[in-house]
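Data availability (excerpt). The following record was deposited with the supplementary files.
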Amino acid sequence: MLLGADLDRKQLADLAGSAGRRLLLREEAIFERRSSEAPHAPTPAPVAAGAAFASPAPPTQLSPEEKSADTSPGGIEGFDYTKTDRYQADQLLDADDLEGLERLALWSGDKYVRMSLALLYERRGDRQAVRELATFSRRTGRHLVERLAEEGNLAELIRMILCGDGFALRAIRNWDVAGLDNDLRNRILTNGLTPDGRIADAS
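Predicted structure:
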């Protein structure tokens, strides 16, 4: 226990102060008595000038052959970017390979892959598939609302707000929505919506 530990004078004085603040008066008295009898802490040996600030070893320089052989991003040795899910997603998106990208997204936990799938759905005009994917992908959900705002699809944004979509509500509150002027925005935010999606009358 600390009461019997071999400590120097400063350490014992600090413990006495700590014990006193916590109302451990018996311990405080013991630490104070031991502090008056204990030796001072030894003086540390001086450090030679410059010893504490030694220059780090210079970085290893790669030969031109080694640099050309390392094709990984950032020059990380042994890292093959072509084997990552994101690289494969880019390749499948470029190839318009919907089946392959759906299969990759099915077992990959990377949101980048799901976003690539959403972009491919959108490229093919399958908005319903984008909506379904947005149910499970926050990034896709935001992307969908951004597209609806750009298109000025106020009816769909209102429908999504009624379904509890936070991004759609954020768009009505703060984002630029094509065709939504400040007067209409204020009416929606002030009066709210009816269950069937109409702007409520002012009370």
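Summary of structural features: The chain has three domains: 2-37, 82-136, 152-203.
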